[in-house]
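Final report, closing paragraph on structural work. Over the funding period we assembled a curated collection of sequence-structure pairs, and we close with a single example.
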Amino acid sequence: MEIILYLSAAVAAVAFLVLVIFLSRTLKSLQVTLDSVAQTLTGLEGQMQGVSLETTQLLHKTNALAEDLQHKSENLNTVVNAVKGVGNSISSFNTSMQKVSEKVQFEIDNNQEKISQIVQWSNVALEIKDKWKSRKSKPSSSVPVEGLSDELPKKKFLRSRY
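Its predicted structure, as stored:
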């Protein structure tokens, strides 16, 4: 029985040795995998720092662009308000012109008879003027004086009959 005890101790020792060898190989394989993961993480960390830097720069540029947009929007609001003011002025001017036009039309309608009389009297006055001019421009029967040349100014002479 002692041999069985030694033999079982030897089998247990061999089994333990096999277990340790396989465990050692597994741990070495795991070590290689973990080293590879560590290198990957180191590279990933460097890339993340680069991405973080670019993201920070992009965020700064975005903020600057947003501020510029805000400033331009405020300036555009000023322009829009100015255009609105011009539109209001034009609208007010149009309203005033319509009121003046309506008032003139109303006065013309009210004074239609007076205007008609003025036009008639104006026509009469023009006719009288035309008749007056036509009488003045008619040649008068005057006796020409001998010795006067055509170069001298013509004078009107009284009508005389010899």
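The CA atoms of residues 6 and 160 lie 190 Å apart. The chain is about 85% helix and 0% strand. We thank the funder for supporting this effort.
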